[in-house]
């Protein structure tokens, strides 16, 4: 039987998916809240803030990796899928967290990191020993190539995302293993049915049985590699190595892999939220994951907007600003997913890999910080799809300041990049200054500073010594406690917007998106049209200058206290057209 639901789903007697009209909040456990004074965030810290999240309007928590791990890549290097990283807490704490979330009527999704494990995982510890045995084929082992002068060479020219070759020599087996990310993050061999079975059971079913409501899927489109492992193109970012993109993105087995996961695991657990981190995909390629039955994933993160100016594409010191029309165009692609019969979109500006949105897409001018943070909140919360908010975004947390130094950075990609440049440009102060500016503007460290809870010492994040330096701007109102006290704060504005978004969900969450001023470099104006004919008109001034404004309908909200005939710098407005 075919049924058409109000939100456009055409499915066989299946109710509309719960994960469409929710607000998801991403927690980065190390930096969210420390409960025991050891300087590192933990599960009990998260439990202590569940009421806070509920009050803000959050429906779902996405917890970045809390699994056991040597923390080479902050937990994206898992050594045991079924154990908690001890400094974060115990399995009892985790059970309590899941129950605490559910008791408040919220849900929880975990991070599924299964392109690779940590080299400390016992699968790898066994695999590296010998070419024989149960775990021998769990990873991507290949024989060396013999170079012109008879020396040993890696099987191809691929470079790792975090710098250096993507191949590492294993003495015991006398073979190379592939690591697209850090050396201690070996890629799993998804061709092996044994590997797939282990992942289904330990990484997925184990947690579904504990009651989790879904997963954010790390690098969901690179599990299946080109069987020939051909060399990649040498690009400015990958040089002197080749870029593995061609040989790993949407590889030949990727859809069978996802269909098998759906069939063998997900179908046993109803309709979980599965949001894929999907880089480098065209519209058509994306539809294969989310736009056809059986649906492989619920939705994806599309990075067209967040990559503007070259983030994650160019070396950080070459990343630049971008003209506003580019942003309007970039947003069209994910907004288009929503109006497809089966697909769905996510809306986000931040995550643990990106700089803070206020610094990247708003302004670094402190005079306009508050207006711009509210402007971005208006833009995010009026776009269709499932909204993802990153910890600290609700108070307008900013990038690290230029006065800090590389010693304050913790992320291996910042550190590796700094060291590589220092080696390439010894004694070149000017270049290293540029490199530092690049790190300040777009490194992952920006998103990873501790959450600023109050004006107390260490921003109320910990009573001990914070594992990572706290941004000092918590002392000047950029913290939760101070902002909760004021009706006019960024925090209160976000809370109001989340309420408005839910109240008018057919317009803001499900409506179609129509840009009005595509080529205008100063303002971004768009109309959202709901299925039942109701419309909203959103005008956003992305500049430090006043601007003329075209209005439509009745003013519902502005971030200016006295909206006039012209838009003030960084003013945004929402109008309803009945
Ligand atoms: O990221 C995948 C990825 O390719 C990135 O966006 C990457 O972090 C960036 O290009 C580095 O500059 C995912 C996770 O989100 C990231 O935190 C992990 O480090 C990575 O996978 C490996 O698991």
TrEMBL record:
One of its GO terms (biological process) is sucrose catabolic process. One of its GO terms (molecular function) is alpha-amylase activity. The keyword Hydrolase applies. Residues 26-448 form the Glycosyl hydrolase family 13 catalytic domain. Keywords: Glycosidase, Hydrolase, Maltose metabolism. The keyword Membrane does not apply. Pfam families: Alpha-amylase. Belongs to the glycosyl hydrolase 13 family. This is Glycosyl hydrolase family 13 catalytic domain-containing protein.
